[in-house]
Structures
1.
Amino acid sequence: MQIRIEPSREIRKNYNTIAKLCRESGAPVFITKNGMGNLVAVSLEQFCMRESRIEFRERLVDIEKNRRKGVKDFSVAEVRRRLLGLIENYNLLKLTEENEYPAREKHPPE
């Protein structure tokens, strides 16, 4: 990741240029004031992706804490069994041993 550093006066003069730089590069732009770090500008897309990753990691930490406390959870095999049962109950797809993972139908893009 390439770090860009710009003085705060640049954001006042060239907001559109800095916003475009953030969107196109995906990299943050560090804004300084009087030669000291002050702000970081990122595109909304990059900000949302970062927040999603942080939230996901926090959920994983909570899951691991619960696992270490001995909280009962489902194994992968149990989740798979339950999902297949739901699919079969709703007659969405009949699975057999020979046809456990049928090929997906290809639909044209909408």
2.
Amino acid sequence: MKPRLFTPGPTPVPENIQLLMARPMIHHRNEDFQEFLSACHTKLQYLFQTTSPVVILSGSGTSGMESLVSSVFGPGEEAVFVNGGKFGERWGELLVHYQIPTYEITKNWGTPVTSSEIISVLEAHPKVSTVFLTHSETSTGTFTDIKTITLEVKQKFPEVKVIVDGITSVGSHELKMDEWQLDAVVTGSQKGLMIPPGLALVAVRTSLVEKISTFKSKSFYLSLQDALKAHSANDTPWTPAVSLIIGLKYALEMIEEEGIEKVWVRHQILGESVRRGVTALGLKLFSESPSNAVTPVFLPEGIEWKKFNSHLKKKDGITIAGGQGPYTGKIFRLSHLGYYDAFDMITIMAAIERALSASGYKFTIGAGVAATHHFLLENLEK
């Protein structure tokens, strides 16, 4: 039984990249490694669509989020964040941890924030210097229109910084950092970048780099000041995750070869094909604004998560993600983020049908697979 991973992180790692990362170790302070690092720095700018620096930190995506919170605030500055899921909530937890005066916008899970809601908070609180947003909320599979929000916020408040959690959106959704005037974006290696967990990639707009350089970070290991200084010398402040950075170079080459615009389109098509499949089975989608990275689906009435998930795992070798927080045991989440193609979507729909049938759910066998397959045939061939 071949194991198949359909979680929104970690995501599958291409076989050729696994082999390349298994090569003999090299030292991180010599020319061999610096060539890999330099290539990653350049290719990451293409990924984020920016001319600004993108630093590589050894840690999960949360470490990138923490590096930003701990490094961008001056005395007396305040923040606003949007809590619409576990990872929007994480911005708030980090801000509280670093004792930043903070205003929270609470949204129902599955409902994205609007620019008018953010602007209202900014009008009421003139000391707010930074807005923290989540582009693709992994826990709810919800997409937020970062482009519209940022451009409208910047029009009224040009000095306010917009910092984005792009952990499951970078590589799956259109994202143009410079054109959209984003001040910082963070992602993780185990998502759209198709390599194992352990790297956070933080893109920092040049104007924010200048601000960061004027005061000392509250963090030692996650200091963006130190990371940016090392970046300018094509180096890292601490011992980096050497094998992961080697893998990162080749993953970024795969993305370049396909073309970033085609990568975005592929994710949109794969995501929609899954949504067509599950709705054809009579299942209800969770999010009002679906993400290209992951699709959460309500479990049918009377179907137990543990039984359903156990069949997927033990009978078919399929690993998916369950619900989080208040939706634990109530929804399941299917990933289409990173190293996936059309046949993977057909495979996961067939597995979902098998597990639902084994769990006692009544439906027409093959309806989900057919809906997914038809959509893929109609759209991937264009």
3.
Amino acid sequence: MAFFFIQMSDTQLGLFASISKRRDSSSTLEGFEYETVRYEKAISAANRLKPAFVVITGDLVQDPHDQAQVDELRRISGMLRDDIPLRLAPGNCDVGITPTPTLLALYRKRFGDDTYSFDHEGVHFVVINSGICFDPSEVPDEWERLLDLLREDLATAQGRGIARTVLFLHHPPFGTDALESDSSAAIPGAQRGPLLELLRSHNVEAVFAGHWHKNASAFDGPMEVVISGPVGYPLGDDPSGIRIVSVYDDRVEHHYYGLDEVPSAVEL
């Protein structure tokens, strides 16, 4: 068995204009042309490479109340080949830094389930809403529901004989180690602990996240946490890009490519 998928993250249409205004109050920059060009290039690369699926790990748009941003996201997403499934995970810009019932309902109406799973060639993939993990103070029932869904889902997959699981979410559970101090960069310890306990007990192989707008990775035992740079506006030295993840019988390999460095084909 060998296949590959593409992780994209932080398409975040409208971020560049928003940052420009924060940096310069006289800026008249509007819209999302910056992100449009890059997301179209990322979709074009996916169409050429033909992965098993594409997953976007959150921050789809900058402002969930801006319908024009959502419409542009849908327009470009619709350019993906019909035979390549597109999987979405919500980010803090999609459901709020502190999610509310209203924003969760809006996301689900637009994009469907925010916590779900699927299988491909004997590997179980799980998508969760890390906004609920980051700050469930306004939606405590949603946090308990997420844990219950994840616990049942992982147990069911194991019961079906699936030994390998990969998780997708927006906020990484941690950036350096599982005992790091709380910050805006990762899921806080109060929620990180129960989440990691579930992932460890079900031998989750890898976690793919975004949120940082730059690349990083860390380990919890054998489980790797991979943080990917953005399709949209970078906040570090890494360019806008995509991550190609190759899945083999005995391992997962991955590499991040700037949008102008994506190979013409993927060798497995």
4.
Amino acid sequence: MKKILVPTDFSGHAQNALSFAIGIANRFGSTITLFHTYKVRSTAGMLVSLDRYMKEDADGDLTSTLEKATAQLMNGATIEGVVIKADAVDAIANKADKQGYDLIVMGTQGATGMAEVFIGSTTNGVIRQSKTPVLAIPEGCEFKAFRSVVLAMDSKEIQSDQILKTLVDLVKGYEASLSVYHKVEGPEDQGIDAALSYWLEGIEHANHFDFSDENVNDSLTSFLEEYGGDLLCMIRHKRGFLASLFHQSVTRKEAFTSKVPLLILQDQ
């Protein structure tokens, strides 16, 4: 976990996400990049002055945030800051993927917890566009060491151990317990990929199969509460478990409402 990218608009939920990034960086001795993008939307005659003011404001906010964050770092962790004029989703995804970041940490906001992860938003856009794992932090969720991790699996095969690397690093780094959850979707359900134990590199874990009639959102939320999960992990395939949650959220205006951090791994 060498490089962590933290997109920020300097809001409260973005600052909360930064606290998680700091906690993780302190554990692994990582470098954090605090990344702010801005975009000028105005008439041509005002662009130059607005651009200058927006850049100056962002630079001021960045300096202040970096000073506070630096005082919280330990174990060789470092932090740097970048401000650019660009579209947020494109800039975040490109920077993370092209510059070898191990993790993107982003805040979400709103009473519905994870709603904006699954409905059109910057977080949603980054998840869809980037190949880098994303850790989405619900508003109001305070950082604590991850002790109980839940990996929600569908029946899709896992293509390589690299897909699970971030999860493995966090579980090992925090010496956390790992529970694997699978919602059985009828008699033709293929269960959990048999290669999972191999890809988890010998990490002790327990498999749990849910045969209930509850919808997957309610069932998974109940499982997290029952097992005290403080980090939920999903693998985003082009089609599959997580993709179905995205689809449900858009069409039914419902969203997964977990209040714990959500780690999304990419299998593209």
